[in-house]
Amino acid sequence: LDDIRSLQPFKAGAEALARHAEHSPLYDLPRLAANDIPVAAVIYHDDMYVDAGLSLETAAKVGNLEYWITNEFEHDGIRQSSAVFKRLLAMVVERGGPIRPDAYAPS
Hints:
The protein is an alpha+beta fold. Helices cover 37% and strands 11% of the residues.
């Protein structure tokens, strides 16, 4: 926080949070592993913010999750191209997910 000027005003708050020892678990891992609803995720191979290996590790912990690894898009690919959302939607529909195939008309 010392190196990034725009974050310096948050230093005291960040340090106070770091000192607080009673954080609850961020995720309920057993519940995620037991998920039975089809889930689709995109992993950006060359993501400059999120290591693809960490994304793969996380995906492996979520039950019934299918992922698509791509290097065609960057970190914000889902906002930059409707093709990303359409592919994820199709992945869920193909696996019988709770989405009607006609819920989103092609554009």
